[in-house]
Amino acid sequence: MSTFQELGVIPEIQQAIVELGFEQPMPVQTEVIPQLLANTRDIIALAQTGTGKTAAFGIPIIQKINIKQLSPQTLILCPTRELCLQIAGDLTDYSTYVDDIKILPVYGGSSIESQIRTLKRGVHIIVATPGRLIDLIKRKTVSLADVHTVVLDEADEMLNMGFSENIDEILSYLPEERSMLLFSATMPKEIEKITRKYMKNPMEITIGRKNEGAQNVRHLYFMVHAKDKYLALKRIVDYYPNIYGIIFCRTRKETQEIADKLLQDGYDADSLHGDLSQAQRDLVMAKFRNHNLQLLVATDVAARGLDVDDVTHILNYGLPDDFEVYTHRSGRTGRAGKTGTSISIIHTKEKGKIAQIEKLINKQFEKREIPKGDVICEKQLFNFVDKIEKVKVNEAEIALLLPSIFRKLEWLEKEDIIKRIVSLEFNRLIEYYQQAEEIEEPQEYLSRRGRDESRTKRGERQENGSRKAEKGYARLFINVGKMDNVNPATLMGFINDNVKGKVPIGRIDLLKSFSFFEVPEEVANKVVNSFRGMYIEDRKLIVQWAQEAEKSGNWKAKPEFAGKKQKNKKRY
Ligand code: AMP
Questions:
Q1: pLDDT at 130 > cutoff 80
Q2: What pLDDT was estimated at residue 443?
Q3: Which of 88, 132, 498, 521 is most exposed, with minimal Cβ within 10 Å?
Q4: Element (H, E) at 44
Q5: Pocket flag, ligand 1, residue 25 (CB < 6 Å)
Q6: Can you give the pLDDT at residue 115?
Q7: What is the residue with the minimal CA distance to atom 4 of ligand 1?
Q8: For the segment 537-559, what is each residue's pLDDT rounded down to a tens digit?
Q9: Which residue has a Cα nearest atom 12 of ligand 1?
Q10: Does ligand 1 lie within 6 Å of residue 53's CB atom?
Q11: What is the torsional sign of CA 321, 322, 325, 326?
């Protein structure tokens, strides 16, 4: 493994980063720093936050600045004000021992006049959100003519936030000859378009595998009825007494409601969403960052700028529609070499999404049962006892009070004292869980329950689904049936959950171990393809044209039907 010195980092920066605790370069730094210092090629880096990417581009950028030339030489574009401030702060840290370097964060929501004044005095590096930078360019208060390096950080987020046109415009003001670096956690098509349009023969670096969530994140899911979601959330939070987590909700309203309920129920929680003022959001984020808040309930958009390394759990209060959002959420834990857990509380209809996310992140989810009351109490108790064992006793502070305390408790045995301490802390929790009804697990959508008992051997199947499809419709086979607890409604829901766009479904024939359903001919292949590679629990899902199912032996028509088939060639 190389050192920062071997990568070509100058002693002034080495000194600053050693003081920050950087002992060895992280993989993205080993790859990017020498390339950027040598100015050889444009770079696309697929790297999540937490991989050390800011230093990967920040260190060489600082080193390449010509201090004597007081004009913007590097431009860093990023999606949010918080990230903007953080990057500028990190760059300032790396350049502690580089004299006179001027770094300016430029972002919306703060005084443009003061940014203009600083620009007039001259800066070397601009870290900007796209909207505000365009504003400044239009006012002719900033010139990008001397920029030799441009970085797009969290490029996928910038596109998600609708900055695509702004980025196009900004890039058009830059000189032809400049290096470009693009950092993105995912590589959607739109990013590929940008790289094709603006980058020359770029080098592609992948830290972790493409479109894969962080390696050290476990993905769990709990399935509940929609009505039990909040109760399940409470139980999960109770089950992890030392949780320091972010709960993601889908809407601002839901975010506020969940935060309010948690607060009311005695949890250390607060909300972060777009209906709050910037000052309120800053306050909540600071509280969370400083660990003065255990649970942050947030929308995806509001949490974008939040950068915290030691989040232990991400809780998905329902799954996002856009699965890449899941990658971003879960990437907020398991950072800087730590392990993390991403937990999803879902209802039955979301089960199909799990399989799709698994494909995207290339990792399996583990299904868990909602913890029972007694298990939660035991976990909390032992955590408390553990704390008693480990607490640092400040002898000097309590010395004066101890004699009278000992005297007061003299009449109690050690066991009694322990019982009382524990009761004091836990009576409420124990009572709550004694009275609370256990959360019933929904019968799983397309569950395999009972499958083994009733399974018939291939070729001995009793049922037969031979019939001709309605005109204009195609008849499709699916290898789930009544013994999987499928009914027409669940089957329709399942198909529509997994196929993009609304699919009109015609006749459905449910048989014991497989079924047939009809869809318009023109969408039949789309439906078949949507289920390709999908698994329900351990079983591969098969959806094919009925004719193919018969050919491949997945289903056999009964002889009398097979006979008819001979006569009527059009059938299947
Ligand atoms: P980033 O991906 O830039 O958000 O960085 C994630 C975290 O890793 C930040 O807290 C950095 O300060 C820290 N970090 C970056 N590079 C190193 C390094 N070489 N050694 C230790 N920590 C680092």
A1: yes
A2: 63
A3: 521
A4: strand 43-46
A5: yes
A6: 92
A7: 50
A8: 667 888 999 888 888 777 766 44
A9: 52
A10: yes
A11: positive
Q: Please report the pLDDT score of residue 179 as a whole number.
A: 92
**Short-list 180, 102, 342, CA closest to 246:** 342
From the centroid of its chain, how far is CA 99? Answer: 39
Is residue 257 within a helix (H) or strand (E), and if so which, with residue range?
Answer: helix 252-264
Are 223 and 442 spatial neighbours (Cβ–Cβ below 8 Å)? Answer: yes
- Determine the angle formed by the axes of helices 27-38 and 53-64, rounding to 10 degrees: 20
Q: Whose CA is nearest to atom 11 of ligand 1?
A: 52
CATH topology of domain 11-206: Rossmann fold (3.40.50)
Candidate of 20, 61, 157 to mutate for ligand 1, largest count of ligand atoms within 8 Å of Cβ: 20
H helix and E strand count, the chain: 24, 20
Cα-to-centroid distance, 192 and ligand 1 (Å): 27
- Residue-wise DSSP of 376-430: HHHHHHHHHHHHHHHPPP-HHHHTTTHHHHHHHHTTS-HHHHHHHHHHHHHHHHH
What phi and psi, each to the nearest 5 degrees, are found at residue 255? -60, -50
Q: DSSP letter at 137?
A: H
Among 172-176, 461-465, 548-552, the least confident range: 461-465
| 182 token code pair | 């693009």
Question: What CA–CA distance (Å, rounded) separates 476 from 549?
Answer: 8
Break the chain into its structural domains and give their ranges: 11-206, 212-244+310-442, 448-571
Ligand 1 binding pocket includes 22 (Cβ within 6 Å): yes
Q: Cα of 56 to ligand 1 centre, how many Å?
A: 9
Q: What is the mean pLDDT of the chain?
A: 85
| CATH architecture of the region 448-571 | 2-Layer Sandwich (3.30)
Nearest to 510 by CA among 496, 525, 497, 494: 494
Assess whether the C-beta atom of 26 lies below 6 angstroms from ligand 1: yes
Distance set, CA 229 to CA 501, 530, 561 (Å): 27, 28, 48
Could you report the per-residue pLDDT of 21-33, keeping only the tens digit for each?
Answer: 888 899 889 989 9
Residue 87: what residue type? I
Beta bridge pairs of residue 126: 75, 104
Looking at the predicted structure, is the pLDDT value of residue 467 above 80?
Answer: no
Counting atoms of ligand 1 from 1, which one is nearest the CA of 4?
Answer: 19
**Helix 53-64 / helix 81-94 crossing angle, nearest 10 deg:** 60
CA of 349 to the centre of ligand 1 (A): 39
State which ligand 1 atom lies nearest to the alpha carbon of 49.
Answer: 2
What are the tens digits of pLDDT across the range 195-234? 888 898 898 888 764 434 467 889 999 999 888 999 999 9
Listed as own residue / partner, the contacts of 166-174 with beta carbons closer than 8 Å and 24 or more positions apart are 166/130, 166/131, 166/133, 166/134, 167/77, 167/130, 167/194, 169/134, 170/75, 170/77, 170/130, 170/133, 170/134, 170/137, 170/144, 171/198, 173/137, 173/144, 174/75, 174/144, 174/147, 174/150
Ligand 1 midpoint to CA 492 (Å): 47
